[in-house]
Amino acid sequence: MSFCTVLLARFQHELIEAGCDEAGRGCLAGPVFAAAVILPHDFEHPLLNDSKQITEELRYALRTEIEQKAIAYAVASCDNLEIDEINILNASFLAMHRAVEKLHMQPQLLLIDGNRFNKHHTIPHQCIIGGDGKYLSIAAASILAKTYRDDYMREIAALHPEYEWHSNKGYPTIKHRRTVLSIGYTPYHRRTFKVTSLITAQPETEVL
């Protein structure tokens, strides 16, 4: 894992911008979480990076620092039922909308990790492919979304320990898929994410 990437503090310098990112799109079970973060103009951290590129220990250490130093931050989610109803892409956007709405100040520009987004009210947005590895605010949002979702998955893991969500966080590992094929879904599974065999393609990024 690399810790040497230097991320940019701002996309522009005129508007109040919030970085937005999500976690859990490729999972078989659990919600998708999203975060929105507004950082100070002078915020910097040499280790802050895309949550997929750093260790779990560092993610939680960074979460504490982000929450202490951010001008505003918020975390929100869409559960598995909503995901099944509106699809994972729209649920990811909706979770970001909810996070933005929870901020105690309204941003004037949203920086979105990815190449698509559903416009939120009248707030302009900028989609940035790989943005969580380019801008500090998006990286910070990725850290919060990932750690809060991991916390949630550990909580519900106690209800269905056979699926090992405490370790796989709901991602389609071979053990997780084997358990689904053997004993079926739980109320937390996304029913539109079909598990038909153990050779189902893995998500693009599996972060445990």
TrEMBL record:
Binding site for a divalent metal cation: 21-22, 113
Pfam families referenced in this protein's UniProt entry, alphabetically: RNase_HII
Coiled-coil spans in chain: none
Record GO biological process: DNA replication, removal of RNA primer; mismatch repair
Main location: cytoplasm
Subcellular location: Cytoplasm
Cofactor info, note text: Manganese or magnesium. Binds 1 divalent metal ion per monomer in the absence of substrate. May bind a second metal ion after substrate binding.
Any single GO CC term annotated in Swiss-Prot or TrEMBL for this entry: cytoplasm
Purpose of the protein: Endonuclease that specifically degrades the RNA of RNA-DNA hybrids.
Family, similarity comment: Belongs to the RNase HII family.
NCBIfam families: PRK00015.1-3
Identification of the protein by name: Ribonuclease HII
Source organism per UniProt: Mucilaginibacter auburnensis
